[in-house]
């Protein structure tokens, strides 16, 4: 008789929902930025933004499928995203000034995403990811 997979505990469920919502917000924000500043942005911005979002989607999909290592992929993506944001702030400040308001939304998005990822590492999340049944 096949074993019935355990129900997902609340903490990892909320963590995945939070990361999914922040990823959706980041996609909408990126599309608005691309539409608004299309004539000013270089092709590398488009490619980089959508490749970055694509990697997030892949890692998030794997986390929804109980691949525990995908949580560490999310941590790596968070570090990468915070680093890119810092690099963008330095580049903007070297070219005449930084509009603080332009960095509020991405910083808040990354902080909320980090909170969602942290929920995946709670004891319930560790148990749920480690009990992955082979299919």
**Biggest sheet architecture:** none
Structural class: mainly alpha
User: Could you report the average pLDDT, rounded to the nearest whole number?
Assistant: 82
Q: Identify the overall geometry.
A: elongated
Number of beta-strand segments: 0
| Computed Rg | 17 Å
> What count of structural domains?
1
Poorly predicted regions are none
Q: Could you state the order of secondary-structure elements as H and E? A: HHHHH
* Strand residues, percent: under 5%
- The number of helical segments is 5
User: Termini distance?
Assistant: 14 Å
Question: What is the helical fraction, as a range of percent?
Answer: over 70%
Question: Could you explain the architecture of this structure?
Answer:
The chain has 135 residues and is an all-alpha fold. Helices cover 76% and strands 0% of the residues. Helix 1 (10-36) packs antiparallel against helix 4. The protein has one domain.
Structure, briefly:
The chain has about 140 residues and is mostly helical. The chain has helices at about 10-35, 45-65, 70-95, 100-120, 125-130.
Task: List its salient traits.
mainly alpha, elongated, about 0% strand, about 75% helix, about 140 residues, 5 helices
Topology (SSEs and partners):
Layout: H1 10-36, H2 43-64, H3 69-94, H4 101-119, H5 123-130
Helix pairs in contact: 1-2, 1-4, 2-3, 3-4
């Amino acid at each position: 008789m096949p074993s019935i997979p355990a129900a997902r505990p609340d903490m990892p469920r909320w963590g995945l929902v939070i990361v999914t919502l922040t990823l959706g917000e980041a996609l909408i924000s990126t599309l608005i930025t691309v539409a608004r500043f299309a004539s000013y942005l270089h092709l590398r911005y488009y490619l980089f933004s959508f490749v970055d979002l694509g990697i997030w989607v892949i890692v998030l999909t794997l986390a929804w499928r109980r691949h525990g290592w995908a949580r560490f992929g999310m941590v790596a993506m968070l570090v990468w995203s915070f680093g890119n944001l810092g690099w963008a702030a330095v580049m903007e400040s070297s070219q005449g000034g930084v509009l603080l308001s332009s960095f509020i939304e991405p910083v808040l998005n990354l902080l909320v995403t980090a909170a969602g990822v942290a929920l995946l590492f709670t004891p319930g999340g560790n148990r749920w990811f480690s009990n992955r049944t082979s299919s």
